[in-house]
C-alpha cells in the first residue's frame, strides 16, 4: 500500500488513542485534512485490513442527526501504523494540537 502524507496523519490520529473508535469528522479535525481526502484514505485502510469499521446503532430521527460510521485500528493495523509513523510521531502530533476524542 502506498503511504501518503495524509495517510500518515490519519494513522497518527489513530495511534493517539488506538483502543478507541473514531468517526470521520473527528478524524478529519485531528489529521487536519478535508473529509474529501480522508474518506478514500479510510476506505483503503479498511480494505487493507488496517482498520475495522461499523455503523453506530442510532434512531436518526430521535437523535436529530445521521448515524456515524466508526473506525478502529485492527491489531495488524496498529503494528503497521507504528512501523509507518515511527520516528515521525512527534512532528505529526505537533500538527494536531488539542486532538482528543
SSE blueprint and pairings:
Elements: H1 5-15, E1 22-23, H2 24-31, H3 35-47, E2 51-55, H4 60-63, E3 69-73, H5 75-85, H6 89-94
Antiparallel strand pairs: 1-3, 2-3
Helix pairs in contact: 1-2, 1-5
Folded structure, characterized:
It is a single chain. It is built from 6 helices and 3 strands. It is mainly alpha-helical and 101 residues long. It has one domain (5-93): Orthogonal Bundle (Arc Repressor Mutant, subunit A), CATH 1.10.10.10. It has a 3-stranded antiparallel β-sheet. It starts with a helix and ends in a 7-residue tail after the last helix.
The biggest sheet, with number of strands, parallel, antiparallel or mixed sense and barrel status, is: 3 strands, antiparallel
Tally the helices: what do you get? 6
CATH homologous superfamily caption: Winged helix-like DNA-binding domain superfamily/Winged helix DNA-binding domain
Percent in helix: 40-55%
How many structural domains in the coordinates?
1
Instruction: Note the gap between the termini.
Output: 27 Å
What is the CATH top level name? Mainly Alpha
Tell me the CATH architecture. Orthogonal Bundle
Got a strand count?
A: 3
